[in-house]
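Request: Mind sharing a record?
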Amino acid sequence: MIGSLATDPNWAFFQKYDGRRLISEITQDGRTTAKFYGRDGKKVQGPERLQRLFKRLPTGHYIIDGELMSDGVLRVFDAPQVAVGGVTIVNEGNPYSERIQVLSGLCSTLWGKDKAIQLAPRATDAEHKLVFFNWLKDHDAEGIIARQMDAPYLPGVRSKSSIKIKFTQSVDCFVLRIGEDGKNNLVLGVYDKLGKDRHVVEIGKVSALTGDGPSAKVGTVLDVQYLSFSEEGHLLQPVNPRLKTDKAATDCLIDQLKPLDQKEVEVYGT
């Protein structure tokens, strides 16, 4: 799969970050108004520093999509709405190649010397994509996002225009039960598919004493690392549960645990 994506000029590779999803909606009309939303579309609190940096934008309306990192840096990867002085430059229907070009211009022009807002690194030509992929893998990055350059912005839906490829073995799952058999553990589950007729699939247990385990509750979404996935349908040696506050339990699907060439693609940009 990597080879075909690398040689296809309609796909670009971006570095994947494990931050908190942050969609910023900014209105600049003499004063700056910024609203922030999470992956689920609900309003969240945004850093005050970003509010100040958005004041540099020209009069207009903007929506900027990115990941807020633990160090306060916003890694941006999409601009589904840029309208300057009443003129729409790009919107959700424009191809990703045009949206990312506009976003790149905003970043270099307005925030080039400020590290708080940074464009996610990307590679677009075949040779660069393979070098980029191997470099990230060799330097213990979490993974890449392959994005289809002619695709529109599709918020809130799964799409084959954006593929998430993790270098580490990890799964997004949720807590079904706590302390089974009198032990300090978390029983983990995922759904078999999207939709109302979905069913829960139990995939194993992880210690509640490591990582964010002590803070977990029934229904909590976790990112859990593991060695492999057995034919019987259980995680082998799951460790280091980490809280995932920007993802719903209904988005945790069993296809994460299939080999890459057998699984459905996962959405990152929505």
Remarks:
- The first helix runs from residue 2 to 7.
- The chain has four helices and 18 strands.
